[in-house]
Write a structure and sequence with these properties.
alpha/beta, Rossmann fold, 7-stranded mixed beta sheet, 7 strands, about 35% helix, binds S-adenosylmethionine, methyltransferase activity, MnmM_MeTrfase, transferase, SAM-dependent_MTases_sf
Length: about 190
């Protein structure tokens, strides 16, 4: 693998590739324009399932268009609701949860993820996570909400019992301007 750490979004995608095989279930917890939903759909294959959440109706419009172009529509379930309501929609174990937090770069910056609801969602994802499955969170501490999410998520995830979870935080300590960081919560396999 080349240039593993220059971009944490790409690193999160590499981890998705390593974890997912055809037939798996994955969740894009922040659908946005559907780039990550499309990527996860390519990995789970025609027998797999990707659930995707966003609170903006426009996200579902943009994402279904993208999935249709790729012929992936039948692999995905698009949900217009907050990820903090996940238990209402998903009743089966999930191998990968992906959160790309914050706001859409070219969208309305006031519509952004919030630490309270992000934390609620992560706690609910833990209940649905398969053994050896992973929750990946790309966090943007360069804006106020993102900083608050970073602090809350790091504090909460560091309390998870190491017998049950491996928690890793990847931040690029020599990059300027508060670069995004990646927080990973992997559920350990029973021994
Ligand atoms: N994954 C996206 C893509 O591939 O284009 C980018 C996601 S963007 C950085 C963050 C998204 O999270 C925004 O579209 C925003 O509407 C959404 N969002 C904000 N609060 C949310 C919530 N409580 N539940 C689900 N999505 C939320």
């Amino acid at each position: 693998m080349k240039d593993i750490f220059s971009n944490v979004i790409e690193l999160a995608k590499k981890i998705c590739k390593a974890k997912l095989t055809e037939g798996d279930r994955a969740v894009d917890c922040t659908m946005g324009n559907g780039n990550d939903t499309a990527f996860l759909s390519s990995l789970v294959g025609k027998d797999g399932r990707v659930y995707a959440f966003d609170i903006q109706e426009q996200a579902l419009v943009n994402t279904s268009k993208k999935l249709q172009e790729l012929n992936f529509l039948d692999r995905a379930v698009l949900i217009c609701d907050g990820h903090e309501t996940i238990e209402k929609y998903i009743k089966e174990p999930v191998r990968v949860f992906l959160f790309n937090l914050g706001y859409l770069p070219k969208g309305d910056h006031s519509i952004t993820t919030q630490k309270e609801t992000t934390l609620q969602a992560v706690q609910k994802c833990l209940n649905l996570l398969e053994p050896d499955g992973i929750i990946l969170l790309v966090i943007y501490p360069g804006h106020d909400n993102g900083k608050a999410e970073q602090e809350a998520l790091v504090r909460y995830s560091s309390t998870l019992d190491q017998k049950n979870y491996n928690v890793a935080r990847i931040c690029l300590t020599n990059q300027v301007n508060n670069p995004p960081e990646l927080l990973c919560v992997e559920k350990v396999l029973p021994r």
